[in-house]
Amino acid sequence: MTRLLPFPLVTLGLLILWLLLNESVSPGAILLGSVLALVGGGALWLLAPPAGRPRRVLAIARLLWDVLIEIIRSNNAVATLILRGPRSQAGRSGFVLIPLAMRSPYGLAALACILTATPGTVWVDYDAEDGTMLLHVLDLIDEEQWMRIVKDNWERRLMEIFE
Amino acid sequence: MTHAVELPLWAAIVVACLLLLGAFLTLVGSIGLLRLRDFYARVHAPTLATTLGIGCVLLASMLFFTVLQTRPVLHEVLITAFMVLTTPVTLMLLTRASLYRDRREGSPDVPPIPARPLPKDGAER
Amino acid sequence: MPDGIVLACLVGLPFVAAIVAGLLPTRARDTASMLAGAVALVCLGLVWSAYGTVSGGGVLRAELPWMPQLGLSIVLRMDGFAWLFAGLITGIGALVVLYARYYMSAEDPVPRFFSFLLAFMGAMTGLVLSGHLVQLALFWELTSFLSFLLIGYWHHTAAARDGARMALTITATGGLSLFAGVLVLGHIVGSYDLDVVLAAGDTIRDHPLYIVALILIVLGALTKSAQFPFHFWLPHAMAAPTPVSAYLHSATLVKAGVFLLARLWPVMAGTDAWAWTVGLAGLITMLIGAYIAIFQNDLKGLLAYSTISHLGLITLLLGLKSELALIAAIFHTMNHAAFKCSLFMAAGIIDHETGTRDIRRLSGLNGPMPFTARLALVAAAAMAGVPLLNGFISKEMFFAEALSATAPVHPLLNVLPLAAMLASAFSVVYSLRFIHGVFFGSPPTDLPRTPHEPATWMRFPVEILVLTCIMVGVLPAATVGPYLDIAARAVLGDATPYYSLAVWHGVNLPLLMSVVAMAAGVTIYLILQRRLREGMDGPPLIRHLDAQRLFERAMVTLSWRLARTLERIAGTRRLQPQLRLILIAAIVAGAGAAFVRGVGPGNLVPAPIDPVLALLWVVGAACALGAAWQAKFHRLAATILLGGVGLVVCVTFVWFSAPDLALTQLTVEIVTTVLLLLGLRWLPKRMQSSSAREPEVLGRTRRLRDLAIATAAGGCMAMLAYVVMTRTPPELLAQHFLARAYLEGGGTNVVNVILVDFRGFDTLGEIFVVGVVALTTFALLRRFRPAADSVELPEQQRDQLEADEARHARDDGRHVADWLLVPFTLTRLLFPVMLVAAAFLLLRGHDLPGGGFSAGMVVAIAIILQYIVGGTEWTEDRLSLLRPPAWIGTGLLLAAGTGVAAWAFGLPFMTSYFSYADLPVLGKVPMASALIFDIGVFVLVVGATLLMLIALAHQSVRGRRSTPRTLPQAKASPRVADAVGGGG
Amino acid sequence: MSDWTTHLLIAPVVVPMLAGAVMVLASDRWRWSPVPLGLASMLAQVVLAMLLLAAADQPAVRIYRLGNWPAEFGIVLALDRLSALMLALASVLGLAAFVFSLARWQRAGVHFHPLLQFQMLGLNGAFLTGDLFNLFVFFEVMLAASYGLALHGSGTARVRAGLHYIVVNLVASLLFLVGVSLVYGIAGTLNMADLAQRMRGIASEDRAVLEAGLAVLGIAFLVKAAMWPLGFWLTGTYSAASAPAAAILSLLSKVGIYAVLRLWLLLFGDDAGASVGFAGPWLVIGGLLTVAFGSIAVLASQNLSRMAGASVLVSSGTLLAAIGSGQVRVTGGALFYLASSVLAIGAFFLLIELVERGREVGADVLAVTREAFGTGEEEEDIDAPDEVGVAIPGTVAILGLSFMTCALLLAGLPPLSGFLAKFAILAPLFSAGAAVTPMSWALMAALILSGLATVIALVRSGIDVFWTTPHSAPPRVGLIEFAPIAMLLALCIALTAAAGPAMTYLDAAARSLHAPQDYVQGVMGVPDPEPRRAP
Amino acid sequence: MELVVSLGIGIVAGSGVWLLLRPRTFQVIIGLSLLSYAVNLFIFSTGGLRSGAAAVLARDEAGTLAQYADPLPQALVLTAIVIGFATTALLLVVLLAARGLTGTDHVDGRERDQ
Amino acid sequence: MSAAILFWAVLVAQLLLAAAMCCAVVRLLQGPRAQDRVLALDTLYVNAAILLLVFGIRTGSPLYFEAALLISLLGFVATAALAKFLLRGEVIE
Ligand code: NA
Ligand code: NA
């Protein structure tokens, strides 16, 4: 089973991908899609990705919702900032070094996606030994506040899912 | 736009708003690329386009084709997924590269390589 | 015997024998000479066998069509004139062979010599027997070429090489000129057949192109017969072995020129132009040759100049408007052959026995070699025109003609009698010098060898020839009379005048002239004798006129220095001028053709300008101009800007309803960027400051010129594009494609159906291009050697290593892994996604945008992404099933095999097959052979793209292996490394 | 189309295609030696070419519809005498290069054999296709392989010259594309025969654009044919390439000539309406200038390879000028010249490698300097220093003989086919009743003077190679290296001997080129194959 | 519309030609890439510009030029793109090899003043 | 009515997007650093993808969607390669 289906979630995702691409749920599409999804899973297996799979589907959904809200909020913030002009941003952007407790690569990847997808924050660097992440923030009013946001809003919840 | 004649008015209005919003956000992002002062600030700007900018347009597209073809058109979701998965790769590598280049040039605006205590036992590794 | 066989044997036998001789072993002197002698004798016999026919005024003729369409045939034709020359060639040939047998050293590789000699004999016979002018020119050049080989026989000496080259250069030039003349003559007459030509005298002389033909043909004759101003090659040809000189430079090769003049005399002579060219050249040559001959210290040199002089005499005779002069010319040709050949042989004997040919060193040889001395004495006397020898009779005829040349065209020719006497006096001088200087005086001392008489058989040919001189001199009418008559009648036909061959014509003016000339000659010799013995450095007055040196200078200047200069001026080895020229040519050709006929916008009304597209193209234009601006100092910027242009192009394709193009353009764009970046790694850093090399003005002019070309090119492209877009042809191929794509091709994506079916052959070719290029890049990169300054690690990596070391960090490279942690995770997840997307593009290609190519590119990009993020060795450890060459081969075979498969159904190559299979669960599934073809394309594209990219990427790995400071990396899987070019 | 002999027409394309592909796969996967397959393929191509040569000797053109699509929009292959001639030349040259390479060159780099096969694929395809864009594709196949072959063996000189070669050809290819697309945009077709048909009907305002397209197309071909001033890349590239590659490459310039010959006569013949004889004078002028420049380059060459390259220029120029004269019989002569010069130059490129083997580097330059500055200065010694000849080793003798043969062929001296070829070009120009124009004189002068230049240069270097510096140790030459040279030269001699029949064939080829109605009808007039089954 | 595309083609081609005439190999390769973009667009444009035309046929239908853009130039461009890509790759490798062997990135393999 | 609304909305949206691309290209030309240019190119790709989506609505054809999809899936590879080059001096090590 694991040989044939090493990454069931990925395989499922690929099948969905196939069906979405073809915009069809006909038996033919499902059959072909399943074959391709299996092959895709095998291809991923060749690349030996790190182990680990997400748990707690509900938490994921809640997280996604929060992310969406956060994205909309910061879109607004950044857009305002840009439109107000360069004078308004004097000295307000900067780097924050945030220690992370999370070690799961998927968790870190998800965190990176969230932070980067949110306008106003960019993941810059990560040190695996110290577990620190360097974050660049466009509207850096308070370093502590940012550290708290990252750790409480995202890291904790991601750890629940991935660790 | 003859094909759009059959679109109900409400859908047309929603689609139009979404389109305009998305395009506007994208433009703002690109303006940010121009107006923001340094690279680290500018790197945030395009995110407007990759998130809500494209998101609104995708929603518009989904709505438009779903209503027009009277069947759910969902494949736009894929673009969202791809955007979310791929943007971090680019931006992280790019920002890190910028950080490296600034550090190499001794720019005062970037944090130095964090100090680290000497390893206790070098032979261990 | 039939004519054909006689003639063919005459020409062919020597050539066959030449091949046989060439195959003999190096030391087979006797065999080779026996063979040559036998062939010469057989040929002589054959010539003799034709006497019956030609003596009756008959002509032997054989014809073999060669290129009948162009009127080219092998025509062998022997009339009396040709018969006489053929006899001369074979007869003297036999004697020369005998002489050469003894002359040539046993150590010499003689078979080669005889091989050349025989071939020459064949060519010479072919020349005189030619009944077709082109064939004559052919054999003419052949004699030049073979004489080159003969002169250069002793090619280890510089003299032989230079002499041979000079002879060939001059005579081949003349031959080419003759060829041109023959063509003109053929144009005038309408045939190259000699008989036809000889019958068209009036046509020829009256034709406006007569003068052109005359000049070209005379040029050929004069060069061959060493006439002024082309005379100088002959003395240098004396570097040849003496038998060669005896044969070629007395009797045969140099006589070809006068042969030709005599041959065409009936149809070309008699005009002022003829007299001017031929006569004047002969006159000058006769005098100059004789004059220079006096002062030669080399025996053979003396003979060579004397030959020049006598040839001048003959040419002069041919130049006169007199039939009798022609007869005298033929007669003197024969006489000269006899005495000059014997003299050359005598000189050869002297050289052979004493080891030198220097008249100043030789003396008193009469003692040790009395018999040879007698022979030489008689021959030299004949040369000097002493009565009772053959030379005397023809000289008398010459004097008579000189006196009676009634209608000289130029006052210069009024001096003819005087000139004749002067030349005759000179000939007495050099003949005296030859005999007196060599055979008389104090006994020889200090010679390289002790002289004695040569072998009997070596002297035999000389004896025969001298005997001939005497016989003819005493009894001309009885001995040579009939033969001369045959020859003369063959040339002149009914116009042959009465003439008498007799020793004694009574006391007349010519005799008086002879006496005066003789006396003058003896006097001059007596005056000059002392100075000549001491050795004079060349002939007075024209001492410094060294023709050879002039020739060499001219050759070096013209054929080397001037050529080099011209090549530099008219050509270039630099790329930029070449490209400039090509572009200018294209612009001029395109714009020129368009404007000559006048061009304007077409019938279609242009669509209104879409502001969005216009803005888009503002972006595109900015990117293009930016790329042009930045490519020198900011390569990365240029690469990025290029990507911008590509993107705009891609969007434009979408805009105008070409989604397939957009997909392809996009994927190609990405791969190209990666490719360029891989290349950038190996290019040198370029700094903006170092451009002060050339003067700024020059640079600016150059740039302005290039800007003009670029603007013109862009303008033309824009104009043509606009003009074409606004008109549309009435009947487009496209209508067929649209009409049949689905109904007969089984696909709704017309573009794809065209690609894999209607014009699948194009695509098949195209994937072979891709495959071939991949193989080529791979082959090149196997031998890749980076420049010294690119070998070391990029500074980024060195910095990182330093930083890691300074901080006593963890394993080298861990930091890199840290940065890449998230991208690495994400890109691995994206890998199967991209594969599925590729499958999507591939499978639906026939009906919707996509297809094998874009699918293949997507897979390639997916794999490249892993390489970028994961590194070469990591990726290859995981994806060890990547064997790009095998993929390339498989893809090509799949695609080509689909084409071949049609044969199985008796259909033409690439005939597609499609139908819908009704399968359970799946329903109707389209099955098109075109899909297999497309899969072949897909496989090929994956393999080829990867091969190129990976082979490039591997250079870094190779570089790192040879750099001491390396990142510890896992060993690459050997199979992959081998497959993608780790070979160094 | 069911008769299997019809498939012969595409066999010259399919054979090298499959052979090359199998080589790539098999030598990678199972480490098979590509040699047996290569030999089989090359021999098969020679046999096929001979069969096609015989099959083409008829008035009607033979066509092959790829994919069984009708000619009006599908791609067709068309075989006439000219195509057959070119195929035959290519296959012979290919075989020679292949055999020659077995001795050494095949080991000088990877993938030599598949590249050679693909080179043949490109050449054969280009000679057979009747479609303009397909011609482009096969040009590209041919060029792609030629890039590989030109660079085969690597090394500074090759890479340096190869860079120029590639860039120039890429530009030419782009011009080709511009030309083709203009043709399509105006005439609406890519089929050459169809295009010829449509020429007359093109409206005059469209004709300007069409002619512009064809002119640009012509420039692309002329770049490949190396017309002055577009062909400076040629000498460097060909002289730097390895011997077998150079032998094959020498045919590539003839592909440009082929394209000009084919298209110019097809499109601008008597049926071309207002475009009759378009740009003909330019071809003549360009050709003559090319001959002039080629002759100069021959003289100025410092080594044999460059000289060989320069003689390719001479040959190209001669052909262009002869074709441009626009006379049927001159074209026939030009075809004869083409055959002779392709074989001779191919043999010469192969021979050079053997001749120069073992000579010290820079010997050529030394010799030239010696000649330029040293002659005439030393006192002549008439005391006959050593009048005993030097025996020439057998190998050198054979090489010398071959060299002489090549020299005669290249210079157009009697009695070999080179001479006949020049005669065949000039004789019609100066035939009785023909109007002798300045062009005729210029062509005559060009042919004769270029021959003279070639003689001078070849004699100079021949003397230097074979006479001046005696080979102390004769070069090691394998039979397998000499055999292909002998074969090519023997073919030249055969061409000389059989000049009559050959000329009959080539005259017929020229006649059908000048009267392309048969070609057009043959391609376009074939009835549609039965319609496809409906899906 | 035609004007915009023509001008675009002209500018891209002009930039490409300008770079093609520059002495550095990298300039030449970028120039050739630009030029091939221009040529691809040029080929494409000879079929006429049709915005919003259907790209694929409806099933069971014979298309006409009234509804569809001319597909042939598109097919030609596809071939041209692919071939252009391959040759660009080759040129790149050759210029790298030239740079490695000659030590310079000048197109002639030697600096002009040397 | 809905056609008119959509027509104008699409046109304005496309103009905004084209303007956005112009902004990006200014940054692309201006630099000043390589990373700025790479960022601008990335933006250009995203803007183009969005433009194509809008174009899909304009024509009512779903076929242009693939182009946008492919840009969103693959467009980043070029920019990632550029960034990697800046970071490490070579794209593939
Ligand atoms: Na962000
Ligand atoms: Na058009």
Describe this entry's structure for a reader.
The complex is a heterohexamer of chains A (163), B (125), C (984), D (535), E (114) and F (93). With 163 residues, chain A is mainly α. Chain A folds into two domains: 40 residues, no CATH class; 106 residues, no CATH class. Chain A is 59% helix and 12% strand. Chain A has a three-stranded antiparallel β-sheet with strand order 1-3-2, with helices on one face. In chain A, helix 3 runs antiparallel to helix 5 and helix 4 crosses helix 5. The longest helix of chain A has 28 residues. Chain A is globular and about 60 Å long. Chain B has one domain. Chain B is 66% helix and 0% strand. Chain B has four helices and no strands. The longest helix of chain B is centred in the last third of the chain and has 29 residues. Chain B is elongated, with a radius of gyration of 22 Å. The C terminus of chain B is likely disordered. Chain D is an all-alpha fold and 535 residues long. Chain D has two domains: 276 residues, no CATH class; 203 residues, no CATH class. Helices cover 72% and strands 1% of the residues of chain D. A two-stranded antiparallel ribbon of chain D has the order 1-2. In chain D, helix 6 runs antiparallel to helix 8 and helix 8 packs antiparallel against helix 10. The radius of gyration of chain D is 23 Å and the shape is globular. The C terminus of chain D is likely disordered. Chain F has one domain: Helix Hairpins (Orthogonal Bundle). Chain F contains three helices and no strands. In chain F, helix 1 runs antiparallel to helix 2 and helix 2 runs antiparallel to helix 3. The longest helix of chain F has 29 residues. The chains are: A mainly alpha (163), B mainly alpha (125), C mainly alpha (984), D mainly alpha (535), E mainly alpha (114), F mainly alpha (93). Chains in contact: A-B, A-C, B-C, B-F, C-D, C-E, C-F, D-E, E-F. Chains C and E meet through helix 27, helix 28, helix 29, helix 30 and helix 31 of C and helix 1, helix 2 and helix 3 of E.
